[in-house]
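Appendix B, Record 12. Input sequence as logged:
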Amino acid sequence: MRKPLKYLGAGLAASVGVAAGAFTLAVWMGELKAQRFVEVRVVPVPYVRDAAATRLGQALYEARGCGTCHGTDGRGRVVIDEPGGRYVRAPNITPHPGSSVAGYSEADWVRAIRHGVDRAGRPLLEMPSEEYNRLNDADFAALVAYVRSLPAAEGLTRAVRLPMVTKALYGIGAIDDSAGKIDHRLPPPAQRAAP
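Logged structural output:
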């Protein structure tokens, strides 16, 4: 009777070891995936500065939920703060010299908003770019015009912390970031999107 129990115990220990190893590997794969380079052909959208575009941009900012993450004033806010879990702090996007968009070029705005990719080509975790990818150029330019018109102010920096289970699911492809959900080859639509 002792031998079967011994084998059962050894089998359980081996199973636990394999599961722990697989989980650790999946977490590591998630960390690598978050640092991957995303190849995006960026077509810059020229800046606009007229009052009508800025008004349209404000309507889009409000209707599309940009303020939900970045705040109505663009200074950023904590979006998710689960005890022991996921933490997401959206950054300041005002024209303040210390903001996350300080020095952004026309191409940088396109890369971040349409493609969910930062200046270095890394995915912007928790940036819902799939919601903005299909904005046409006029709407996109208007949205950027409004954000650039916000009063410069100090605000929050970007921070994203994911629990190990989420990293593991991300690593094995069970969940994805915006950069992984978007077909980056599609040109923007010609039709104006409704706010």
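Residues 40-163 form a domain with the Cytochrome Bc1 Complex; Chain D, domain 2 fold (CATH 1.10.760.10).
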